[in-house]
Amino acid sequence: MNTIQRVTVNKNERGLLLRNGDFDRVLQPGRHWLLSPVDTLRIVRVPLDPPAFVNPIADWLLAHAPDVVDAEFVRVELGETQVGLRHENGVLVEVLPPGTRRLYWKGLVAVHVDVVDIAASPEVPPALVARLAQTQLRARPVAGLGGVLQVLVPEHAAGLLVVDGAVAGRLAPGAHAFWRYNREVAVEVVDLRLQSVEVSGQDILTRDKVPLRVNLSATWHVADPVTAHAQLHKPADHLYRELQFGLRAAVGTRTLDELLEDRTVIDEVVTGHVRDRLWAHGIVVDTAGVKDIVLPGEVKAILSQVVEATKAAEANTIRRREETAATRSLLNTAKVLDENPTALRLKELETLERIAERIDRISVFGGLDKVLDGLVKLR
Questions:
Q1: I want to staple 250 with a disulfide (CB 3.0 to 4.6 A). Which of 162, 212, 214, 266 is the partner?
Q2: Rounded distance between C-alpha atoms, residue 26 and residue 28, angstroms
């Protein structure tokens, strides 16, 4: 008995006609009359949005129905060294990994796939880097970004590209992206700004066996990040140890008096020690200087006594020098007065004037003539 079926396929879908459970053809939008005298027919309606055709028969169609694939689908078959950039209506929506085999419906959404060969270099083209940045802020984020390493190198830093464990190059400041497929890719960002390190609480014996506690401060920067990364595991830790060695070399070969008289000698010795050793590793030591030298309590007390005695002796010398000068001045004055009676009389009048300034009232007995005669009479 013949069976006639009427099937309606909407414009936003396609129909898969299955004859006896096996694929027969694709039904376009519209009404279809199906006559089945013997076979069992079944229609599977497939929406065109999303456009990806995910069905067990996709691989069969790719292998055995090229005419159907060319008519109804956009075919994507990527090799092991190829990445696909899938666009929908001109907008990038997905990054397809190598080895992808997929079909996308034609009709509702315009699907286009750009194929990128990644065998030669892991670097993502600069024009594409900007399109992959901050995709989460778009109306539709880009899928498949797990296979892309995105790195932003600040202005004050440099990036080291490491591919399969080896340094492949230095990255300038800016945005960069790299394919992670078929290789291990990592980027280490190295700060190139001036940095400081503190070496505190170093207990060191001087050449004359006096224990000191020295605090040192240094500034440094990375001049060659590629060399520093290749030769040093932790540049800051290596610098700290070299500063310790330089500090012990500077203090241990000098006496306490030498260090206290010229503290800059420690700075010069330490700076010379670390600069020569770290320059070969791509590290530049800009400055190194002693912040303070802490003496033990008993040594500090002894030094205080020495300083006190020295200052007392200096003060006594100055006092004796001033007394000698004052005595010499008095002798010179006496010699002038002895040789010049007029000067002696003037000195007497000057002394009398100073005395008179302190007297409020004078009582004179016997008349003023004798007093005035005595004041103005010169011998």
A1: 266
A2: 6
Q: Which runs of consecutive H residues, i.e. helices, occur in the chain?
A: 58-64, 66-72, 126-132, 225-231, 235-252, 256-261, 264-279, 297-339, 341-356, 369-376
The CA-atom distances, in angstroms, between 161 and each of 43, 133, 165, 176, 281 are 54, 19, 10, 10, 18
Distances (CA, A) of 235 to 17, 54, 178, 215: 68, 53, 27, 20
Q: Which CATH architecture group holds 195-295?
A: 2-Layer Sandwich (3.30)
Cβ neighbors of 216 (< 8 A, separation 6 or more) are 198, 199, 200, 202, 243, 247, 266, 270, 288, 289, 290, 291
The rounded distance, in Å, linking the Cα atoms of 168 and 148 is 17
Which sequence spans correspond to the domains of the chain?
195-295
Q: What is the pLDDT of residues 7-52, one digit of tens each?
A: 888 999 998 888 888 888 898 999 988 877 777 888 889 998 889 9
pLDDT digits (tens, 9 = 90+) for 103-119: 999 988 999 999 999 99
